[in-house]
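FAQ: What does the model actually see?

It sees only this:
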Amino acid sequence: MSEPSARVAIVTGASRGIGAEIARRLARDGCSVAVNYSVRLEAAQAVVDQIAAAGGRAVAIQADVSRGADVAQLFDQTEALLGPPTLVVSNAGIMTVSTIADMDDADFDAMLAINLKGVFNMLREAARRLPSGGRIINISTTQTRLASPGYGPYAASKMGVELLTQVLAKELRGRGITVNAVAPGPTATDLFFEGKSPDLIEQIAKVAPLERLGTPQDIAGVVAMLASRQGDWINGQTIFVNGGAA
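And it is asked to produce this:
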């Protein structure tokens, strides 16, 4: 499989956390990066500035991935500013923790809109535009295996992402494009720590046999591998990055 000479990545939800680290890592590996954000312009611009300070090339581009027109514009702006995209990382997602009995309709609809339809919109556009040697990487969650109470609708939305990953890999037969998913376990980000007591954080960290939380760097490293030539023969897979938690 030939690798495009000019690598241009779109990373959705890249203003903070795992997405920001993926953007920084891909830039270090030589990609020009479109740092997508929905509402956090200042945070996205900070990631762009960090990439530029390290000698990389990046731009911040606003788009709501739940809207197909926004996603098409995201690809258009990326091509205009950086060149044709060759790598797409669908990281944008939201999570509401609630039992099924207590789940609010609006929260349920929002998770499906961002986590599932948003990934679908990115996959559809990527399938139409990426060249041979392109890479598509979706971010799922280890909750699709753990199935912990309170995570039902969230895990269901991400299970849909894993199935879309498998199907698109087959639909792109003959195109030389790989489609994979990465499923993090509990990862040390500001979003993870929010609202959790130290005791709960320690309890969650102990779930994995390695007895620690993941880091954004752990996740970004696997994404970088899939984006590289080392990922040539990995296709249609979900890789769980969770220290053995599931």
